[in-house]
């Protein structure tokens, strides 16, 4: 099972790196006043995440099946390692954020000229790929840059909680399936009980606030300059959310197992 764990670990890192780097596309779009084009590219980057998830999900479920046949197998420890991969993937995205802001700024400009993604891809040359090294930028992260951004503490805290729920959603349902083998199929499909709460918080409290912050940045030069710091803060809070998921997975798994027992 170690080989399977390595594959799942890498895929989980890819998923969280791609999802977190979507902030770099938005910021590049705001800097160029081409937010609509940037949002279209966001969907393409998230496609990488979704594709990785198609492979990762069934492989993760394999651990539960293995635990049913081998009672000494500690499935929870494997799930915690997978959650660690989520944290590492988020850290990687934070480190790559400045570089990808530059890269996606270039891609957005090229897309506007090419007119479509297929034409953009076909126009890429070896020389252009070699020139990407000029867009590499070292991250500069310090606590002082987050002091006067005007972002409510409640907003950051909710973002941490939402990230924890989303990170642990599928894993907690699989852990519940391990806890109640008699209802394992129902429990494994119950991730919506956890993700649903995250979606409600995201839709009501986070997305509108983030939309207002981004909209203000498109109209105000000072707000535009601070938007990168705001996105960095959100990525850092996302990292803490993946860490919080380590504490959430067990109670979430038990909660799902109890609800499934009532149904």
From TrEMBL:
Biological pathway: Cell wall biogenesis; peptidoglycan biosynthesis
Gene Ontology CC annotations of this record: plasma membrane
Spans through the membrane: 6-23, 75-101, 155-180, 186-206, 239-262
InterPro entries: Amj
Any GO MF annotation of the entry: lipid-linked peptidoglycan transporter activity
Location(s), subcellular: Cell membrane
Recorded topology in the membrane: Multi-pass membrane protein
Keywords, ordered alphabetically: Cell membrane, Cell shape, Cell wall biogenesis/degradation, Membrane, Peptidoglycan synthesis, Transmembrane, Transmembrane helix, Transport
Example GO biological process: cell wall organization
The keyword Iron is annotated on this UniProt entry: no
Ubl conjugation recorded as keyword: no
Annotated family: Belongs to the Amj family.
Protein name, UniProt field: Lipid II flippase Amj
Organism in which the protein naturally occurs: Paenibacillus lactis 154
């Amino acid at each position: 099972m170690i080989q399977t764990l390595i594959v799942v670990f890498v895929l989980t890192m890819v998923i969280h790196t791609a999802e977190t780097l979507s902030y770099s596309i938005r910021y590049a779009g705001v800097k160029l006043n081409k937010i609509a084009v940037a949002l279209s590219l966001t969907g393409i980057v998230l496609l990488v995440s979704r594709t990785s998830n198609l492979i990762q999900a069934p492989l993760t479920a394999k651990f539960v099946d293995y635990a049913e046949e081998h009672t000494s197998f500690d499935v929870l420890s494997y799930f915690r390692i997978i959650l660690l991969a989520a944290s590492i993937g988020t850290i990687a995205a934070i480190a790559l954020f400045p570089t990808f802001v530059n890269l996606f700024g270039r891609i957005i400009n090229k897309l506007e000229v090419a007119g479509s993604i297929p034409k953009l891809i076909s126009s890429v040359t070896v020389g252009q790929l070699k020139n990407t090294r000029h867009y590499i930028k070292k991250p500069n992260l310090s606590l002082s840059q987050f002091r006067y951004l005007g972002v409510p503490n409640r907003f950051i805290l909710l973002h941490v909680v939402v990230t924890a729920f989303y990170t642990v959603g599928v894993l907690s349902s699989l852990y519940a399936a391990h806890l109640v083998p008699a209802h394992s199929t129902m429990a494994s499909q119950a991730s919506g009980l956890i993700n649903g709460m995250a979606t409600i918080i995201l839709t009501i409290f986070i997305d509108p606030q983030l939309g207002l912050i981004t909209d203000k940045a498109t109209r105000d030069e000072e707000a535009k300059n601070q938007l990168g710091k705001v996105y960095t803060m959100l990525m850092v809070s996302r990292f803490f959310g993946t860490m919080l998921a380590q504490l959430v997975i067990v109670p979430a798994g038990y909660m799902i197992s109890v609800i499934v027992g009532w149904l």
